[in-house]
Amino acid sequence: MLKFLLVDIAYFLNTSNKYAKIKLFFYDFLENNSNKYKRYFDFFMITLILISVVILIREVKFHVSDELLFFNNFVISIIFLIEYILRLWLSGSVSTIIIKQNEHDTMLGNKFKFSKALKDILILKIKYVLSIKAIIDLLAILPFFHQLRLLRLFILFRVFKLFRYTKSIQTFSSVISSKKFEFLTLMIFASLVVFISSILIYAMEANNPASSINTLFEAIYWSIVTISTVGYGDITPVSEAGRIVAIFVIIAGIAVFSFTTSLVVTAFTEKLDEIKDLKLVNDISKIKEFYLICGYESVAKDVALKLSSNFKVIILDEDASRIELAKKDGFIALNYDPGSVQSYLKLKIDIDTQVKAILCLSNSDVENVYTALTVRSINKDIFILSILLDGANKNKLKFAGVNELLYEKELVGMIAKEYVGQSVAFEVIHALRSNYNGIDMQEIVINDRILSSFSLVRDLNNRKYNIVLLGVYKKDKKVFLFNSKDETVLEKGDFLLIVGDEKFIKEFDKYLHKRQIK
What we know:
Blueprint: H1 2-15, H2 17-30, H3 38-61, H4 66-90, H5 94-108, H6 114-129, H7 132-141, H8 157-160, H9 162-165, H10 167-177, H11 180-205, H12 216-227, H13 240-285, E1 290-294, H14 298-307, E2 313-316, H15 320-328, E3 332-334, H16 341-347, H17 351-354, E4 355-360, H18 365-378, E5 384-387, H19 394-399, E6 404-406, H20 411-419, H21 423-434, E7 439-445, H22 448-451, E8 468-474, E9 479-482, E10 495-501, H23 502-517
Parallel strand pairs: 1-2, 1-4, 2-3, 4-5, 5-6
Antiparallel strand pairs: 7-10, 8-9, 8-10
Helix pairs in contact: 1-5, 3-4, 4-7, 5-6, 11-12, 11-13, 20-21
């Protein structure tokens, strides 16, 4: 009965939107660097750590009030304990493990094996508990048991929690960890040198009355000081053989120091581009609104140049050379594959609120299809515009979720082609598709009443009403004149293709007919 109850609870939690939102809230609060509240939480935790250390230092020689000790040993420790429990909870989904085990057993026609699920849960949680960060968190909580005075020294472990709350230290740690094997090899080499030199110097100096090395501990201490090239001089070999050992230890120390320096420099050099990208991603996450251009080729470059005059533009392209070109042109560009879900996860952006539209402008319909499919798998509502190079691929792009196609054989495509690169035209298309701010596109037929007062395009005075005249369709010639010149003659039966606010369009229409009455 208990087993079935656990399965029911697991399914309830896994399907509960409220539970999912609560878990996501705490995850963002503790782990998501793009969360606006996390920086305040990090600052709060860093402050608590520094207060703990100050109290510990003060307590060594001076009396500390009972209130401060209570705050340090209980309040701060309880806060750290709550954080530890939350991180343990977020480290994996218990309900998911139970559900998977139940479904697996059901599929095989077996009874639910609770013991197997429990084992998987324990392995998952123990794996987190034994991680370095979790161990530091646990040691930072130990001062809570203040009855054991020695445990107060574990307050110092709270300093190591700073690694969790400071990005620069985390970045440094990740860079160093990329050379784990090399540093491990170096450590083994240095340990062997210390071990051998300690035994040698002890054997050669311990029986010498004039020597200051009388114990094995002193020999180890001397070896470590010497190989680190510190050389305090408080303990030195006096025999000739001992000094020969010291020469080899010093040379080995220089080699270790040089190798360590080269490893750190190499690690940072290799990770430099990644560090720059991380910094760029953090900067992008702070931008309120921008256009995301996928691909940076001929059309994309022109569009980006025009849009950037009024809006922020971010460029993604999997080709490193094109990204370098985009950066030289002054754009924020990342060498990410627009057709990969991971690229958008790395960006750490809120597509709903930050991205005004996504423009698929690669010179390949196939790449644009993959990009559109990827974006649609992440967000179903974002506006996607794509260029169409081959008419045969039109349906593929439409099925992929593209809202607007720029293709010369269609009217909207021709308008976009004429105005491509002009931000106002793209804004018009975007606005029309999303019913944005009451913007509308209408046709006005030129009749006798209008012709009696307006014979040329320049006479229309459309700008006074904030109306954009995209062009004039000449009925007799069956041709559409984009961006009609002021000298264009208006004829009966022509169509004015205009864009603007619905209210202004109505006023403009009244104005055209009102003049005739006068």
